[in-house]
Write a structure and sequence with these properties.
It is built from two helices and 28 strands. By secondary structure, it is mainly beta.
Length: about 450
Amino acid sequence: MSTLSLPSYTGEPLQLQTPSYSAEPLLHEIRISQGLRHPLATRFSAEFIKDSKRGSLRLRLSGQENNVAIPTFGIHGPVQGTLEVLKPEGLAFVAVRVHRGVSQSEGDRRWGTTTTVLCSEALTLWRKGVDPGPCPSSFPFSVALPTTFSDERGSWSLPPTYEAHLTGMPGFTANVDYSVTAVASKTKNVKLGLGVTTVSTPFIYYPRTRPSIMVPPRLEAINSSPGLRMSSNWRVHESLIAARIPGSSPRGVVCSFYTPASHVWCMRHPIQYHITFTGPAVSLATLLTYMPSRTGASPIRACSRIQLLRQTTVDVKNEYTPVGATSEMWRTRNIGEGSLHRTGDGPNWLSFAGEIDVHSEVTIGGFKAAGLWVKDCIVFSIAPPDPLKGPIGDMRCVIPIRLVTDPWSPAAVHSDTFVPQASPTPSEVHSTREQAGNGNS
């Protein structure tokens, strides 16, 4: 077999080697194009620093804003940073622990506290006799946060940091707390507490959420009943209003409340809706006196109202709760007030449109965790002065919804930075309507 001379090979020429890259253009470079990026996708570069009481341990948590009082981490975390051991001599064990739990207390904790641990993870950084060499003076660490947890009730998404105060005697408080603790011990038995130094800080868990689908545009107004061109992307919720007027229909007036079918909104965008009323002209004329006018003012201010309500429910069941007895306490508060303006009318119909701005202090959506349940709903109510004998009866329409932290965007669809949220489940709808039907605060 003949042998041919093979060419010799050398390393790649310098100009063909992989160049180095930087996140931002250098002085001699320009940015030609940039893909879609969510405005909140900023990566913070500051550190949160906390020392132990005697200064022998220093906990540095990375990825934080400047001068924050409490560090914040999002979905997956990770809770990461560096543990500095300023006095490593004589140590036998070094670790970091991340704790997550739901606590319930009565009477400002005077009557006892019950804590449900969602999960607790420990990361051993160094052990004498197991890991080589003397104890280092610095340990980088990273602990990923799970996205779900399980209990006897089922499997749930990891809830955000939350605090709720329910009124009553002696009162009730429910908290979702997160903390990270670093431990340095001179003995391997940390539970004894001898020669143990710790540094701990709470942190805020803030999972960002988004709608699973895009919110559709408003419905088109038309000049025939019911005044709107319906779309499959919107859903109608019907309620009946009794009318006791000569010439009115035995069925009364039909109220149709239109919302996007998904029922999922970004809390920083207005929640838009349409409302139509259909029925005999004499009934609509009477009803109109209880609704806002074309200028936005309401002739009878207390008669019609659109609210965004947040329900916080706590299951306080214990071994002393009788079988079959209700074991839930709940609080309802107003987190947004709706507007309403008239957009059209006809011989047998009236059409309105409006929107709700969510209060700025609301920063998280609903969740369910270890007996604590936070739910949101839109409530449209009409309460005339004499609903039993007057010309128009009362009405209360409850529409469960889900609030998310971020809007839908094409860039976020395939991102693991957000948790996509679907419509409320049938059980959520039933529970929300049952409790909202008992009134509001």
